[in-house]
Every structure is written in structure tokens, then in C-alpha cells.
Amino acid sequence: MPSAAASLDIATHVRAVTDAEVAFYHEHGWVKLPRLTTPEFAAELLRVGREWHERNGKQETQWNALAMPGRIEPYHALMFSDVMGRNAQRLVDRKRLSGVDVPMRYRVDHFVSKPPGSGGATYHQDSVEHGTDRAGELQFWLALAEVTADMGPMRFMSGVHREGSLGSVFREGDDGLLNRYPLLEKLYPLTPPIEYQPGDATVHHGYMVHGSGPNLGDRPRMSYIFSYTPADTRWWHGKVANSGSERIALGDESNPIVYPKP
Fold first, then answer.
1. In the chain, domain spans
2. Is the pLDDT at 245 greater than 90, yes or no?
3. Quick one: which of 42, 90, 167, 213 could link to 199 by a disulfide (CB 3.0–4.6 Å)?
């Protein structure tokens, strides 16, 4: 049976980004989007995600894609909506470089739970780890329940995206970009931990250095992470992965165009 939220017009649950938010993103490489979705919609995502994990014998701590390929609603409706596709395209704004907009492609999505006591995330840049050949990848982090500072939410280094690639850190023995570049934080001080209410989101540039602390709270940190990329981006091995050397386009079957619809 379709969820209650999925049966409604997505426009009643999800808003467009504002001009001010787009400008902040371009300057800082990230932006907070209060009430990107309604709290009711975030609660529905949380309910459906937890039921899906239980039904499929999965642990909430496993990072599982729900929008693709299973098209679980309302995850698919959110990620493949025109409003979210347009939001991504406005934030990337390739039109300022070439005079025309580039279509946006689904990259990946994850339902994520960080239980109390779980560790933080090493400071890194997404695009460097994922193997893109150009700027434009962006990632949304949507809170499905309240997230307080003691739960280890993300922190960003505002403006660092202009430095470009600072190198991969996802390999054994590497302890992250803050240790590799000890002067980096003096140039780009870390934001305080970002706090969220259900339905709040942040979105960050593929070259934004970001990470998080451990969850020291008494509740799991529940989120939905979903990512878009310009359709002309080339990737290692033509898939979403953290290794490889040959860069080719993503395929329409696994990573279809979201906006504008073909």
C-alpha cells in the first residue's frame, strides 16, 4: 500500500531553495536548508525506512538505497521530484560557465542510522573519493528526526571548496585531511556542529571538506543522504565507486536523469 505522504502532491511536502540559499552555497560550499521537507514528510520517511529494514532483515546501521533500484516510496518520489531536481540544478549552476544548464542525474541515496556510541566520519571531500572528473556533484543530508550537537552532526570548512581536490583519504592508515594539512583549519575554520529539526537539511559541494564527531547522545542519528551529479560528469569505471582509473559516463539504467525529465 502506498504511504500516506507518497499519495500527496510532493509540492506540499518539499520546497524550492531560495536565491539567498543558492548564493550562500556558492560562497561557502554548503548551506543549511530549514524545513526542506515538512516534518510530517520526514516522519513518514523514517517510518517507511525502518519498516523496510525490518521487512528485509536489514540493520538500520547498514547504508541501504531506497529510492533506487527498489523505488521505495516516498523516497523515490522525493529524490526524483522536479522540485528536488531543479534545486540541485540551481545549486550546481553550470549555466554560469557555459550559458546552458546541464541535466541532473541520480547518483546514490542512503537511509542512515548512527546509533549512540558510533564513531565520527573522517574529514574528506566526496568528489575526490567518488572519482568524478569535474565539479558539480552535491550531496543532501536530510534529518529524519531531531539532531543535536552532541549526536555528532556534520561540520564544514566554509569556502574550502575553492581549493579543489585535496586528495583521497579513504585508505588504510590515512587519518584525514585535517591531519594531512595542519594549517587548513586556520584558513577555513570548522563550523560548529550543525543541529537539525526533522525535515531540515544541509547540502554540500563535492569539494567541501566535511566530517562529523561520534554520537554521544542517547538516540540514533537518523538521516536520509541523497546525491545528484551533472549528467555529463565522467566517473571511474562508469559507476559510483571509490577506486579505478578509466572515467566514463554513468548509465541511464542505474543512474537515470532526474531533471529535466527526458
1. 21-259
2. no
3. 42
